[in-house]
Write a structure and sequence with these properties.
It is built from nine helices and 14 strands. With about 350 residues, it is of the alpha+beta class. It is globular.
Length: about 350
């Protein structure tokens, strides 16, 4: 083979921390706005995870030049007696002149596990069905206003529009329930305390598949340097019944994950009101937001003063040997980078 052809051969390899500058440069060249903070890159791509020992960041190279990158958020999907690995790609991009590079990298990673996609850019949504993804429903974004006047701080929105949003949100806030059942208690958990919720983690229920949670996953997530994340146990009569996790981003508190070990609507409402109470302690947040595609959670949110604001498609792609759940798949912000991705300014949903 001629030397020039040999030099242009494409190959895929995991990245290491020494590739940080290369990865950031490639993402910027592809039109993304990645953070270059070393601790954030290490956490996303290279910090060891007890629940996923494999690599989490890959580049496709042409010769010695990286031309595409993809990182993954790993997980395990459970339904009935089945358990399969699933991967959500993040920071997936290719140089504009590198035809087919991004798809080649996706297919390579997709041989390791089933792929999950929640939302994405317009270009991504056009590509997904062409590379084997199928629609698996939608997830709805809900918002409850905490402090309507803080909406006026949002930059880049005309003042008349901000005033209208503030007035609507004030009406929402006045109509929302403010008190919760005092029999429910909330306990903030440190990394050393995560095992307190080990017996009340999500399980397949009500005909839905779930993305598995584990003590090891929460240890990793609580080390996130991108945004402050806090995990809370929810207790009733001295017994742990569930949990929720909050992320503080500019202008918002996000309930990025939650579960209550119950099929009773009143218990789910109690858990959500506990989360709202904690969110109100954030000095900069105007609102609290959450995703839901579980009917029980969605009904609880409506009963707690939340309003549906947006819908995001959910997609799945099987491997050649792995079946996907026939049941709907419950997803939360913790299942992709919505748990921590944000711009450096308030972006409200209200």
């Amino acid at each position: 083979m001629p030397q020039g052809a040999q030099a242009m051969r494409r190959s895929i390899r995991p990245t290491t921390a020494t590739d940080a500058g290369v990865v950031v440069g490639l993402l910027r060249d592809a039109g993304l706005r990645p953070s270059g903070e070393p601790q954030e890159l290490v956490w996303k791509y290279w910090l060891p995870r007890a629940d996923w020992p494999g690599a989490r960041s890959f580049v496709l190279t042409e010769g010695a030049e990286p031309i595409a990158h993809a990182a993954l958020i790993p997980g395990w999907c459970r339904w009935q007696a089945q358990r399969v690995a699933v991967i959500h790609l993040i920071d997936w991009a290719a140089r504009g002149a590198a035809a087919g590079a991004g798809v080649a990298l996706l297919k390579h990673i997709g041989r390791q596990a089933a792929l999950l996609a929640i939302g994405g850019s317009a270009a991504t949504l056009r590509i997904l069905p062409e590379v084997g993804f199928r629609r698996a429903g939608v997830v709805t974004g809900y918002v409850r206003t905490l402090f309507p006047l803080r909406l006026l701080r949002e930059r880049g929105t005309p003042l008349p529009r901000r005033l209208l949003r503030c007035a609507r949100s004030l009406a929402w806030a006045l109509a929302a329930p403010r008190s919760r059942d005092a029999n429910w208690q909330v306990r903030r958990l440190s990394g050393a305390d995560v095992s307190r919720i080990a017996d009340v983690l999500p399980r397949p229920a009500r005909g839905m598949a779930v993305i598995e949670r584990s003590v090891e996953l929460f240890h990793y997530v609580l080390a996130c340097p991108v945004v402050p994340l806090a995990l809370f146990a929810v207790e009733y009569a001295g017994r742990t019944r569930g949990y929720f996790m909050l992320a503080a981003v500019p202008g918002q508190v996000r309930i990025v994950d939650c579960w209550i070990d119950s099929d009773e609507a009143a218990d789910w409402r109690a858990m959500i009101l506990c989360a709202v109470e904690q969110a109100r302690l954030d000095a900069q947040a105007a609102e609290v937001v959450i995703w839901a595609n579980d009917p029980l959670l969605a009904a609880a949110l409506t009963g707690c003063g939340f309003h549906a604001r947006c819908e995001t498609p959910v997609w799945l792609r099987p491997t050649d040997t792995t079946a996907l759940p026939p049941a709907p798949l419950r997803v939360q912000m913790l299942d992709n980078d919505a748990a921590f991705l944000h711009e450096d300014r308030a972006g409200h949903w209200a």
